[in-house]
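ok new one. same drill as before - structure tokens go in, u give me an amino acid for every spot. 120 of them this time. try not to just spam alanines like last time pls lmao
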């Protein structure tokens, strides 16, 4: 079973910064993309940022210029540096991985979620 272990969430004041990290278990043999989604209360889960194995990135318009996604392929870890945080960034942030374990097809994997709360 592939596990994604997230860390780094918490409470921060508006204008502050947080860094999220997500490490995939060693069972994963091939990763296509890693990324972050978020879900605020009463709203649908939305893409925040994604990074492909080659390093290309994609961001939601609402976070462009403030958030930076990066990954360490050797550690199967993805990071989300969040700067200039706003109260509207408050949500549960979920790590996502698209990849495969040996002998299996690609599939989506999700972390357990980490709460980010930005106070005004």
């Amino acid at each position: 079973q592939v596990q994604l272990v997230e860390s780094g969430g918490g409470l921060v004041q508006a204008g502050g910064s947080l860094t999220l990290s997500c490490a995939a278990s060693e069972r994963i043999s091939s990763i296509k993309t890693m990324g972050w989604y978020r879900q605020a209360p009463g709203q649908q889960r939305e893409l925040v940022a994604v990074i492909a194995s080659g390093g290309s990135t994609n961001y939601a318009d609402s976070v462009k210029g403030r958030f930076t996604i990066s990954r360490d392929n050797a550690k199967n870890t993805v990071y989300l540096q969040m700067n200039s945080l706003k109260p509207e960034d408050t949500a549960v942030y979920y790590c996502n991985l698209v990849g495969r374990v040996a002998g299996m097809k690609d599939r989506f994997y999700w972390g357990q979620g980490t709460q980010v709360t930005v106070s005004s």
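DSSP finds no helices and eleven strands in the chain. and btw The first strand starts at residue 4 and ends at 7.
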